[in-house]
DNA sequence: TTTTACCCTATCGATTTAATAGGATAAATG
DNA sequence: CATTTATCCTATTAAATCGATAGGGTAAAA
């Protein structure tokens, strides 16, 4: 299941991608437009800022804005920051690899084999889809 | 994340697919071979039996066995019974569809658009992969 | 100096997950 | 027919995660 954090994060990024990058947008504006709890969204945008996606400005006229061109933001990076691993199981994860405790041989494991195929495909989609593709 | 229930379920099915279909295999045998908690595996096999994948036999010489040829068991059916929806979000699910409360228009939603692509791809893999493919 | 809006940490209730406990039922065996 | 074997079934629980909220701190603009 995709977490609401990720869902809301993508919606917020998409919202920002449709705006003028030089004009900061307030959390409250996005919150109301996208029907997202203000405080929850606040923490999500904070995460996105700390991870280099957003810039922010305090005080009157402040808010958040995209730091990069949407077409230079592949969904892999967004997903990894908000959702964590793209793979369904750690033993096939590129960035969050972990060995299964119960599995003596990964190469002989049916689950590993199947989930590797799924990960390859999903990864390709996320790599080839940028924020710009989602903001039309 | 793939649940351990699904992971263990697939491993157990794979194990059974490698055996003679006419000879029941005891839970304890699979549990030991695959390093799965016996009681947990018991409940998983029960689910698989109730959903038509396995047959069972009680008493001495009893155990579980596959009801169908592994090549006639696509992973879609296994995943749906053990894991639930294949889609990452209910609004793009075929079998477990639910509308998002916050989303006024699915067709204009970035998350919907992205997750639909992922679901299509993942579904294709699960449809084209059978238990036989995983049991080599 | 007041207002505005982001910054940051802590906490909480609800849900889900993985596992366990403990006995009931049915089939084979001697 | 009693005993052993192995599945059947329900309930419970500990831990983790999730979504959301609370509440005050900080910086910038007017």
UniProtKB/TrEMBL annotation, chains A, B:
PROSITE patterns: HTH_RRF2_2. This is BadM/Rrf2 family transcriptional regulator. PANTHER family: HTH-TYPE TRANSCRIPTIONAL REGULATOR ISCR, WINGED HELIX-TURN-HELIX TRANSCRIPTIONAL REGULATOR, RRF2 FAMILY. Pfam families: Rrf2. Gene3D superfamilies: Winged helix-like DNA-binding domain superfamily/Winged helix DNA-binding domain (1.10.10.10). It comes from Olleya aquimaris. GO terms for cellular component: cytosol. It comes from the Bacteria. Keywords: DNA-binding. One of its GO terms (molecular function) is DNA-binding transcription factor activity.
């Amino acid at each position: 299941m995709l977490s609401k954090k990720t869902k809301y994060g993508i919606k917020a990024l998409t919202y920002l991608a449709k705006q003028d990058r030089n004009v900061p947008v307030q959390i409250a504006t996005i919150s109301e437009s996208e029907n997202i709890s203000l405080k929850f969204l606040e923490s999500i945008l904070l995460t996105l800022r700390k991870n280099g996606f957003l810039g922010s400005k305090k005080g009157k006229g402040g808010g958040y804005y995209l730091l990069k061109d949407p077409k230079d933001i592949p969904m892999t990076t967004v997903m990894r920051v908000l959702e964590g691993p793209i793979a369904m199981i750690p033993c096939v994860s590129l960035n969050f690899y972990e060995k299964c405790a119960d599995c003596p041989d990964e190469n002989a494991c049916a689950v590993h084999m199947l989930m590797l195929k799924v990960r390859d495909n999903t990864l390709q989609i996320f790599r080839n889809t940028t924020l710009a593709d989602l903001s039309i």
